[in-house]
Design brief:
Shape: globular
Radius of gyration: 20 Å
Number of domains: 2
Strand content: 25-35%
Structural class: alpha+beta
Helix content: 10-25%
Length: 204
């Protein structure tokens, strides 16, 4: 196994970016960024604890759930989940955060890196209500850099080509749960839990 240990070795293999790519990061939202955020129903949030251990967590709601406060600040509401809150624990020790905004069907994405704080209330919380549910927590992100990312990864993976999806490649969620994190529980009970009624539980 040949390891890469220097910047020179890395760049000799992957090359260096063109100026337009190297310099595309901005520090404030463009109007097109605002449009993208308003159309985004899914955001991946990356965090790291003080020791460098990483976590990436998906955050989803109806498109436009991420609230824009101003050209340098956005807000991401928290919804009920598994209560591990790995990313939020990370932010207590290391406020740096990375975000990828995904629009279904689009190969390009919007990326934001910044510094986060967590709040439990603010005047704009009323604008974060979804289906009558007001968040108890939100992440306020001060933008350090923002840029659009090309579609090559989605094109290579053919992510949005539904005719190529094979949903039976791996077992259904109930089987995975029974064999991993919910070992020993009755499969019929798990099928019921993760069945059609699961969607009714997503806000509480």
């Amino acid at each position: 196994m040949s390891q890469i240990t220097t910047v020179e070795e890395l760049e000799s293999i992957i090359g260096t970016p063109l100026p337009a790519t190297r310099d595309k990061a901005r520090v404030a939202l463009h109007e097109l960024d605002r449009l993208w955020i308003a159309a985004t129903p899914l955001v991946f949030m990356a965090t790291s604890d003080a020791e460098g251990r990483l976590d990436v967590s998906p955050k989803g709601d109806p498109a436009g759930f991420v609230h824009v406060l101003d050209d340098r600040t956005i807000v991401i509401p928290e919804r009920p989940g598994n209560r591990r809150a790995d990313g939020y624990h990370n932010l207590l020790g290391n406020p740096h955060i990375g975000l990828i905004f995904v629009i279904p069907g689009r190969g390009d994405t919007l990326r934001i890196n910044g510094t986060a704080t967590m709040v439990t209330d603010a005047p704009y919380f009323d604008e974060l209500v979804v289906k009558g549910h007001r968040p108890v927590l939100a992440t306020v992100v001060a933008i350090d850099e923002i840029f659009h990312h090309c579609s090559k990864a989605f094109l290579r993976s053919r992510t949005w080509h539904s005719e190529e999806w094979d949903l039976e490649t791996v077992p259904r969620r109930a089987v995975i749960a029974q064999q991993t994190d919910r070992a020993g529980e009755d499969l019929a009970v798990l099928d019921e839990y993760y069945g059609p009624s699961y969607a009714e539980k997503i806000y509480g």
